Amino acid sequence: MKKNRVLSVPFGLWAAIFIVIPLLLVVWYGVTVEEPVAYEEIVSADGTVSYRLENGSVTDEKPWQKKVTVSFSNFRRMVEPTYLKLLIRSLKVAFITTLICLLLGYPVALILTGKDFKHPSLWLMLIILPMWMNFLLRTYSWMSILENSGILNSWIAALRDKIPAFDGWLTSLGVGKKIIFLYNEKAVILGMVYNYLSFMIMPIYTVIEKTDKSLLEAASDLGASPVQSFLRVTLPYSLPGVLEGITMVFVPAVTTFVISQLMGGGKVPLIGDIIQNQFGKSSDWHFGSTLSLLVMVVVLAFMRGLNRIDKDDEPEKEVRIL
Amino acid sequence: MDNNVILSIRDLKVVFEDGFTALGGVSIDIGKNEFVTLLGPSGCGKTTLLRCIGGFQIPTGGQILYKGEDIAPLPPYRRNINTVFQRYALFPHLNVAQNVSFGPDLRKEDKKKTASRVAEMLELVGLKGFDKRRISSLSGGQQQRVAIARALINQPDVLLLDEPLGALDLKLRREMQLELARIQRESGITFIFVTHDQEEALTMSDRVAVMNAGQILQLGTPEDIYNEPRSAFVADFIGASNILDATMIRDEKVAFLGCEFDCVDKGFGENNAVDVVLRPEDVKLKPMDDPAQNVPEGVVESLLFKGVHYEMRVRTENRVLIVHSTHAREIGTRVKLTVAPQDIQVMSKSAESRAIIDRQTAGRR
User: Fold this and answer.
1) Is a pLDDT exceeding 70 seen at residue A320?
2) Which of A71, A171, A214, B263 measures 20 to 30 Å from A40, CA to CA?
C-alpha cells in the first residue's frame, strides 16, 4: 500500500501542475470579468484634461489599466439564445456522430471477432493505420476529395460526360454541375465519424474478444439461434465496451473545433469554435472560460449518466471465480 | 440392441486445417439410457468426438446417426442434445434460476411451468432454494450442479459431459461421481462422459471407450477393459499393470520371465511374440519352500504400505514387477512368483507395446 502511494507521486505532481492548477485558473477566469477602471474626466480652466480615479488620485494620463472583478455576468451571457443554440447544435452533431460510429463500429467489431474471421489483428491495424497520420492532414484530405473542384466532383463530371443517361438522371434530380459537399453540418459529421470511428471499434472489439467463447457455445447448445445468442449473450457482455466507445467518441465530438472549422468552413460553428474564438480573436478569456465550464458540466453530466448505466450492469458482469 | 441404439457414429473423421488428424475414423453405437465414457490421455480425440456429437465441430468425414438421421451437419441449436461444459460456461450475468431456465425461456415456454421445472431440476441436483443466488457466489461443485440442471431441463435424449469433474478437488469429485451416476439413473438420459481419469471411468460407466491417437482402441464394460485389455496401451492406461514381452508357445501355453505358464487364451498362433499383462494383485508371492515348480523367482526390493494393501517391487532376472498383496514380505526376501491361468491376459503386439514395455522396464530400475 505504502509502496503504491510512493509510485503515485509523479502522477500526483503532474496532475497538480497540469490539471488541477489550470482547472482552478479556468474557474477563476470563468467567475470574473475584466473592466477598464472607472475614472472621471476633469477639464480645468486652461483646457488641460486630467483624470480622477475612484480612489481619488488624479493623473494627467488617460488611465489604461483594467480591473478584474468577481462577476457572474458571463453566466447570464452564456445562457443567451445564441450560445445555447450553439451548445445544442454541438450536442446534436456529437450525438449523430456517436450514433453513426456505433452503427458502423459495432458490426465491424463483431465481424472482426467472428471465429471464422482470418487475420483479425491485420484488419484491426488497417483500421487504426489512418490514425497514425496527422489529424489535420486526414481532414484536409477529405476536403480535397469533397471540395467543389475536388476529386469526387471531377469524377462525377467525368462520369456525366461518358454516360449521358447518368447525366440526364442527375439533371432530372435537380443536381447542379458542381455538387456542394463541404461546408455544411453533414460534412462536419462526416469528418467526425471518420476521425472518431476507431475509438468506437477498439473498446467494443476488446470486450467481445475477451468474452468467454464457451458462453456462446453454451447458448447455442441450449437452443439459441445465432441471433438469439447475440441478443442474450454477446450484446449484454459487450455493453461496457459500447459505453466506453460512446464516451470516447461523444466527448471529443462535443468539444472539437478543428473539424467544424475545416469541414464546416466556419458556416457550422460549434461551441468549441466559440470557445476557441474567445481565446483567440475576441481575446475574452473570461467568457471563454465560462463557456468551457458549461461544456465541462454538460460532459460530466453525460458521463455520469453513462456511468449509471454501467453501474446498473456492474453486479451482473462480475467475473466468475472457479 | 439395434432398436435401443440412439446414437450411431460411423467412421467419423476430423482432420484439422493444419493436417492434424484428431479423429481417424471412429465408430461406436450408443444405447438409450447408457452411461458411456470416452477415456484417454489428452490429445487422444475424446473431446473432439464429443464436440462433433454436440455440433461444435463439423466432422470432415463419416456420419453421426441420431435416431437413424445424420445430424453431423446440423448446428448445436438444432440438436436435442445438451452439453455440460468443462468449465461449466454458466452465464455470469444471470442468477441460478435464470441460468437453468435459459433453454425453456428461449423456446418461450410458459413461465409458470418453467418455474416449477426449474425448482424440480434444482432439487434433482441438490440445489433446492438456490434460485436467486448469483453464479459467482457458488462453489465449483455447486456451479457444476447448476450446469447439469441447465442442461437436463431441456429433456435431452443425450447429455454430453466434457471432463465436468476436472476442476473439482478429490473429495468433491468422488461425491459428484456418485451424484452423476444417480442423476443418470433417475433421469434415464443417455450420458456420454469424457474423462482422462481411468478410475472415474471405471466407477461410473456402463461401457468405456478407451481412445488414443484419434482411434477407439477398445470398447467394453469396465470389467472387460480392466480384466481383458486387448492392447498394451489399454492395459497400461487402465490401472496399474505389469506388461511383459512373451512368446505364445501354443494355445493356452505362454512363456515369459523365462518360464512357461498355463493360460486361457487361444488363437495367437504358435511361437509368436505377444504381450502379456499381469495385474499387480494377480501376482502371488510364495515362499521358497512352496511346491510350485518352474516358476520365476525374485527378491522383494521395496515395500510400501498403501492402506488396503502393500505394494512391493519384486526383482526377477529380467525386470522388476509390481505386486499388490495384503500380506507384506520383508525387503530382501526371496520369493517364488505364481499367476493363475485366468489372470494372465495375452495381447497381440501393437505399435505402442515396445515403448510401453521399455518405459515400464526402465521406470522400475
Assistant:
1) no
2) A71
Name B168's Cβ contacts closer than 8 Å, sequence gap at least 6: B140, B141, B144, B176
Return the CATH number of the domain spanning residue range B232-363: 2.40.50.140
Confidence of residue A119 (pLDDT cuts 50, 70, 90): confident
Can you point out the beta strands (E) in B167-296?
190-195, 207-212, 215-220, 242-250, 253-256, 259-262, 272-278, 284-286
- Say what the pTM is: 0.77
On chain A, the residues whose CB falls within 8 A of the CB of B55 are: 220-221
∠ Cα B10 B51 B29 (to 5°): 30
We find that the CATH architecture of domain B2-227 is 3-Layer(aba) Sandwich (3.40)
For the stretch A128-174, pLDDT in tens is: 888 888 888 988 999 999 988 889 989 988 988 898 888 888 888 88
CB-CB under 8 Å, B136 with A221: no
Question: Residue ranges of the domains in chain B?
Answer: 2-227, 232-363
pLDDT tens figures, B78-108: 999 999 998 889 998 899 999 999 999 999 9
Nearest to A214 among B77, B87, B135 (CB): B87
Q: Please identify which residue in the block is written with the cell numbers 483479425.
A: A120
The strand order across the sheet containing B207-212 reads: B81-84, B158-162, B190-195, B35-39, B207-212, B215-220
Task: Supply the ipTM of this predicted assembly.
Answer: 0.80
CATH class of this structure's domain A75-147+182-311: mainly alpha
